[in-house]
Design goal:
- The complex is a heterodimer of chains A (108) and B (471).
- By secondary structure, chain A is mostly beta strands.
- Helix content of chain A is 6%, strand content 32%.
- Chain A contains one helix and ten strands.
- In chain A, the strands form two sheets. Chain A has a five-stranded mixed beta sheet, covered by helices on one side. Chain A has a three-stranded mixed beta sheet with strand order 6-5-10, with no helix packed on it.
- In chain B, α4 links the parallel β11 and β12.
- Chain B folds into three domains: 214 residues, FAD/NAD(P)-binding domain, CATH 3.50.50; 145 residues, FAD/NAD(P)-binding domain (3-Layer(bba) Sandwich); 67 residues, Orthogonal Bundle (Arc Repressor Mutant, subunit A).
- The longest helix of chain B is centred in the last third of the chain and has 28 residues.
- In chain B, the strands form six sheets. In chain B, strands 1, 2, 4, 5, 6, 7 and 21 form a seven-stranded mixed beta sheet that branches. In chain B, strands 9-17-11-12-13 form a five-stranded parallel beta sheet. In chain B, strands 14-15-16 form a three-stranded antiparallel beta sheet, with no helix packed on it.
- Chain B contains 14 helices and 23 strands.
- The radius of gyration of chain B is 22 Å and the shape is globular.
- Chain B is an alpha/beta fold and 471 residues long.
- The chains are: A mainly beta (108), B alpha/beta (471).
- Chains A and B meet through β1, β2, α1 and β6 of A and β3, β9, α3 and β10 of B.
């Protein structure tokens, strides 16, 4: 049994207020101060995008905004680095399959 | 265009130390950082909406960082957060995206303190979700207060694995093993080099004891060969390696793990110094090209200084000293400091800097990936994560005549994606060297193009419109 998600450390901290964001139509919990990628990890979800060429899942890697593997579409804006973008109440987040704005069918 | 006396790019240890020193000289200072909080990766600060009940739990870097941030905030320093230097628009003129606006900042002196990032070393399965850098693990635990739910494998080479393991354990994570590629006898043989810093040796020993007490294995002379999984990591293959980093046949074994944290050292972020036109030199131990600088941290471009990891991996003590030194030199050139002020300041900084550099050089010599780690990368393993270029693609391009990183990039697209080669270029250069038999430096430095990180066209267009209105 694998357990690839992340767990919020319980003691010693008060997070910001709790709210939900929508990821691919599903609500997930986030706390003010958390990044979009961290809220996703805590919800148990690791793959954040799927690559163009090999159609492989990618997750958070560098965690500091330099590797661009955590790109997702946030409130209609594509290619947002979710590892450095704070979650905000009501955010709409969607997974990118391949390069956004380009139909995958045009490339095969 | 906005003007200032001294612009400092990056607010980690080097940038903060430089800003505090520069401000005491009375110069106008702008301190820029791409992120939303000051402190950079070392003084990693928690989000402003989090309240920490016991800050001492965050380690001494946190409180030291808070003190620096307090000093810089109360001084005459203009703090520009969420401000990315994405290009260079002229002599010491930085093209900046600040929030959603684009603007230019012209400074009399520029101090580049852009830091470093985890050195990526590819292996089969390293692109699977669940394989993260040790830096990412540290950010998640120290900044976001979350730890991997399952079994964690830390793997790499060098002391950084130890504090990360400590922080993960403190957060309640379950560590299966910490895997260090240097052998125990190799560590003993080189330990004379660490005698200058017995405190750091003791710190390391303390972490080692804590890791062993947690029930985790601590394996010297081993490394990762493969990460296994379909959608996410479910296991890792580790193996024993000899002193040259070659796998000992038959020593491979599979460990069931859920998260793999890789720590193979760091690479300096040199994109901004490259764009500013600073000369560089190849550094064998750093495995890449570093900006050259004089004893005052000034680069080949007059008025442009470099401090901290950007000038070569040295750790926070080197960064703090270099940041102060660069700021003293910049303020002196400005006529803001007298010769005797400068002499007394330099006399205070230089001995500390030399000692810190000696210890950093020992770490660089002792740890870090060996060529064998790259030699064994299978042809079908992706090395350029953005463009999905494999090790085989790179090797074939070099065998077909590509004789520079630029030529490999044109043939394979390695380094052409949004990360601009930060992740792949050191690997590509090493693969090219191994397959051709030529030295790594023969393939040249990676080419850097603005924007160094993507900027929205709309933000650029707004700036252009603004410019037209003014003219």
């Amino acid at each position: 049994m694998t357990d690839n998600g992340f767990t919020r450390i319980a003691g010693g901290i008060q997070r910001g207020k709790q709210f939900s964001i929508q990821v691919d139509g599903q609500p997930i919990v986030a706390f003010a101060g958390e990044t979009v990628a961290a809220a996703l990890l805590a919800s148990g979800r690791l793959p954040l995008r799927h690559t163009e060429k090999h159609e492989k899942p990618r997750g958070i890697f560098c965690g500091m905004g330099i590797c661009f593997d955590c790109l997702m579409t946030v409130n209609g804006m594509c290619n947002v680095r979710t590892c450095i973008t704070p979650a905000e109440p009501g955010m709409i987040v969607t997974t990118q399959y391949g390069l956004p704005g380009v139909s995958a069918d045009d490339n095969h | 265009m906005i003007t200032t006396d001294i612009a400092i790019v990056g607010s980690g240890p080097a940038g903060l130390a430089a800003a505090i020193e520069a401000a005491t000289s009375g110069a106008r200072v702008v301190l820029l950082d791409e992120h939303l909080r000051l402190g950079g990766q070392f003084f990693k600060q928690v989000p402003s909406c989090f309240t920490i009940e016991d800050p001492s739990r965050l380690g001494k870097e946190y409180s030291v960082g808070q003190e620096f941030i307090r000093l810089v905030s109360s001084d005459k320093v203009d703090l520009w957060l969420d401000s990315l230097v994405w290009g260079v628009a002229g002599d010491r003129t930085l093209a900046i995206r600040r929030g959603s606006d684009c603007l230019q900042l012209k400074a009399e002196k520029v101090i580049v303190a852009t830091g470093a990032y985890d050195r990526p070393v590819p292996f089969p399965g390293w692109t699977l979700p669940g394989v993260i850098t040790a830096g990412a693990a540290q950010t998640l635990v120290k900044n976001q207060w979350m730890v991997p739910s399952g079994r964690v494998l830390l793997v790499g080479s060098g002391p950084f694995q130890l504090p990360v393991a400590h922080q993960l354990l403190q957060g309640g994570a379950k560590i299966a093993a910490v895997v260090e590629s240097l052998s125990f006898s190799g560590l003993l043989r080189t330990s004379l080099g660490a005698l200058g810093r017995p405190d750091r040796g003791l710190e390391g020993l303390g972490y080692w004891l804590e890791i062993r007490r947690s029930g985790a294995q601590f394996l010297f002379g081993h490394t990762i060969i493969e990460a296994i999984g379909e959608r996410e990591v479910r296991a890792a293959v580790i193996a024993a390696v000899d002193d040259a980093g070659r796998v000992k046949p038959g020593s491979e074994r599979t460990m069931e793990v859920d998260t793999i944290c890789t720590a193979f050292g760091f690479l300096p972020s040199t994109q901004v110094t490259s764009l500013l036109g600073c000369a560089d030199r190849f550094d064998e131990e750093a495995g890449g090209f570093l900006p050259t600088h004089d004893e005052y941290q000034e680069t080949s471009v007059a008025g442009v200084f470099v401090a901290g990891e950007t000038s070569g991996i040295g750790g926070s003590d080197v960064a703090l000293a270099e940041g102060r030194l660069a700021a003293v030199a910049a303020a002196w050139q400005f006529g803001r400091l007298s010769q005797s002020d400068v002499d007394s300041k330099l006399a205070a900084i230089r001995p500390k800097l030399q000692a810190a550099r000696r210890f950093a050089a020992y770490l660089q010599r002792t740890f870090g990936p060996k060529p064998a780690a790259f030699e064994r990368i299978p042809d079908d393993t992706v090395v350029c994560r953005c463009e999905e270029v494999t090790a085989g693609d790179v090797r074939r391009a070099v065998l077909d005549g590509a004789d520079s990183l630029k030529a490999v990039k044109i043939r394979t697209r390695a380094g052409m994606g949004p990360c601009q080669g930060r992740i792949c270029s050191s690997t590509v250069a090493t693969l090219a060297s191994l397959v051709s038999g030529k030295p790594v430096e023969a393939f040249g430095a990676p080419s850097v193009r603005p924007p160094v990180k993507p900027v929205r066209l709309g933000a650029l267009a707004d700036q252009a419109r603004e410019g037209l209105r003014r003219s």
